[in-house]
Amino acid sequence: MITSWPSKRAFCTLRYWALTYASFLCNQNQSEQSSMALFNLGLGLDAGTALLLLAVVFVIYYLVSSAIAWHPLRAFPGPLVGKFSYFWLISNARSGRPAEHFTKLNRRHGALVRIGPNDLVTDDPDVIRRMNGARSTYSRSSWYQSTKLNPHEDSMFSLRDVGAHDRLKAKCAAGYAGRENTELEAGVDSQVANAISLIRRKYITTGDAVRPMDLGKVVQFFTLDAITRVAYGKEFGYLATDSDVYDYIGTTEAVVPYLQLCGEVPYIQRIVFSKFVLGMVGPKHTDESGLGKLMGVAKKVVAKRFGSDAKEERDMLGAFVRHGVSQAECETEVLFQIIAGSDTTATAIRTTLLYTMTSPHTYHTLKKEINTAIDEGRISSPVTHEEGKKLPYLQAVIYEGLRMNAPFTGLCAKEVPPEGDTIDGRFIPGGTRVAQNVWGALRRADVFGRDADLFRPERWTEADAAGRDRMQKTTELAFGHGRWGCAGKNVAFLELNKIYVELLRNFDFQIMDPAKPWHSVNFNLFMQDNFWVKVTEARR
């Protein structure tokens, strides 16, 4: 019977011969000993010790190579160090560009690559859909444990139990869909107006009096105020104060890189999320800074809805309460919404604006479509969601921007069912974690063409119906798929269909330093700032 590790008998035999040989050499005459100086290597070791160390090295090599040779995942290519350790994943996580490195691996080795002792990664859209489908037997892996922003409670995104997840999602569905939130679109409109007001109030350049604006920060302030307005009925005031209210941005930039590392390296996750560590240094809602401070904000927001004098509100949180979401569940959803509902959408907007501004043809074509629609009375002020959906080039720009830089690059690893699975003729044993490289999937040449790495919105207007449908379904993997799909997808598209039109109908933008347009690093979420632009009133 072949096992995954060398047998005890083989190990003992190897040790016996190594020690016997070392003893034999140590008893040779002086002339023979002098010839053994090669083993000293300037370390002051005698020949016997040197040979014993060689034997130890050989044993380690034998154990590692045997583990690699007989491991159930041995058929899958990938970095050598990743076959027996998490060092490659740790290094990649700390690089700030993990999605690009996963994509290089997939392009070099194929759709399934081994990146850890029990970990594969895929950029195949069909495999991603298969794992996430409503009838899939795959489950959420331990990776999701690291997404618990409140480490003591699960959100809809971190729940691994399928039944519990589906029940919570059903109770939250009406709130996310907007069916009971009659002010959903008006709420987004109000924050678009606040963003326009902030820019006009503080950042308009006239003549040679340049007033640089960090577009990255302003966009994030917009998405933060938009999600808090539609979710809790009142924006937190990022745009009004032009500041990082509650130190949200600083907190996420400090915390998210460590959560990423916890998700990808199981033993680090077990330590960080252990009761002992959380009890000693874990965040608490009474903290005055960090994640605990945000937990406290969420707790206060929710407490108002469960108090004795609470009024029924027609916003997202109000819908949660009406459909039986508990107070503790609401607190975790509120906390997760602030991040999931702002960071990812902000990344999509910032990326699309950067690519649009650095592509003169795209910039002027989009401006022309917007101005023509205004002149012909096809869009109102502000543009409605339905009006935006009818602008073909706008839709092409929105989808191309999403495609070029998937806003969330978390691995979202699923666990293979106990009976295992066979993909492309290769068996994957049960319990294996299969990660999703969505960033790479959105740049596949077999879906988007040989110029998939090029920002070119025209690919959407040139494609036939079947090709466009395939590209659209693949791009929307950025929001997940099937059972595990993003509940707030419609809110994100509502914001995207409005913000580009309103920014470009009101202003003209110019990047201050084309050689270094921004600073962008990726730790599952993108941290993008120093996106300095010059803003002037739009000229028709």
Identify the CATH class of the largest domain. Mainly Alpha
Largest sheet descriptor: 5 strands, mixed
Q: Regions with pLDDT < 50 over 5+ consecutive residues?
A: 1-11, 28-39
Strand order of the largest sheet: 1-2-8-5-3
**Percent of residues in beta strands:** 5-15%
Termini gap: 78 Å
DSSP strand tally: 12
**How many DSSP H or I helices?**
25
- CATH homologous superfamily annotation of the largest domain: Cytochrome P450
Whole-number average pLDDT? 90
Family: Belongs to the cytochrome P450 family.
Keywords: Heme, Iron, Membrane, Metal-binding, Methyltransferase, Monooxygenase, Oxidoreductase, Transferase, Transmembrane, Transmembrane helix, Virulence
Pfam families: p450
Transmembrane segments: 38-64
Describe the 3D structure.
There is one protein chain. By secondary structure, this protein is of the alpha+beta class. The chain folds into 2 domains: 1-26 and 47-70; 142-537, Cytochrome P450 (Cytochrome p450, Orthogonal Bundle). Helices cover 54% and strands 9% of the residues. The protein is built from 25 helices and 12 strands. It has helices spanning 8-26, 30-35, 47-70, 87-94, 98-109, 125-132, 162-177, 184-202, 215-232, 238-241, 248-264, 266-272, 275-281, 290-306, 316-322, 327-340, 343-357, 360-375, 385-389, 392-404, 438-441, 445-448, 458-462, 465-475, 489-506, and strands at 112-116, 119-122, 139-140, 213-214, 414-415, 421-423, 426-428, 433-436, 507-511, 519-523, 525-529, 532-537. It has a 5-stranded mixed β-sheet with strand order 1-2-8-5-3, with helices on both faces. Helix 4 (87-94) runs antiparallel to helix 11. It is globular, with a radius of gyration of 28 Å. The protein starts with 7 loop residues before the first helix and ends with a strand.
